[in-house]
Backbone:
């Protein structure tokens, strides 16, 4: 028991002794009281008061602390899907792309404007020939370009392009054959292709 409690027990014991002495004044002498009994009584009274005081104190109630809320995890934000643009698409070069700088080195339109003529190319060799028949000067309608030439040995092909300035350049078994002609009307003009030269036959 701590010091303040000891002082309180002693004070209560003294008070009981004084009361007992006052009651016995002027009368028959009181019976002899055992001091140990007085101390025990005082201590019992003191313990009773302490117990009552403790009972009056409200019982502390344990309050459950809220559990910590888990932190939100970082969700990666995906970039928006972008549609490919014309600038981002890879470009390819066509096999017939004009890389020579010649504005007429392009395929001639099959429906080119202007009056038409007839050109027949005869392969006078016994092997296939390949090359181009080219309208190399623009017509008054602004047409120019080339037609592909692929002819089997000893065979021929006929074309119907606009009138104008033409040349033929083909590869034969022996090398290259070349010829040119100016066609100003709708009469048939023939190019006879030999191993290393071309003969032009006008009507």
Residues:
């Amino acid at each position: 028991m701590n010091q303040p409690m000891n002082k309180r027990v002693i004070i209560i014991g003294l008070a009981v002794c004084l009361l007992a002495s006052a009651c016995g004044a002027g009368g028959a002498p009181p019976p002899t009281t055992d001091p140990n009994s007085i101390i025990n009584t005082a201590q019992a009274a003191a313990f009773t008061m302490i117990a009552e005081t403790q009972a009056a104190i409200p019982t502390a109630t344990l309050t459950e602390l809220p559990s910590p809320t888990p932190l939100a995890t970082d969700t990666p934000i995906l970039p928006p899907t972008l549609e490919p643009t014309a600038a981002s698409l890879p470009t390819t070069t066509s096999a017939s792309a004009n890389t020579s700088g010649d504005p007429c080195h392009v395929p001639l339109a099959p429906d080119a404007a202007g009056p038409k003529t007839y050109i027949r190319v005869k392969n006078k060799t016994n092997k296939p020939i390949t090359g181009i028949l080219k309208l190399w000067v623009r017509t008054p309608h602004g047409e120019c370009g080339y037609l592909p030439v692929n002819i089997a040995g000893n065979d021929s092909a006929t074309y119907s392009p606009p009138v104008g300035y033409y040349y033929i350049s083909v590869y034969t078994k022996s090398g290259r054959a070349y010829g040119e002609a100016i066609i100003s009307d709708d009469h048939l003009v023939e190019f006879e292709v030999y191993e290393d030269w071309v003969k032009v036959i006008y009507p």
DSSP finds two helices and eight strands in the chain. Residues 77-96 have pLDDT under 50 and may be disordered. The radius of gyration is 64 Å.
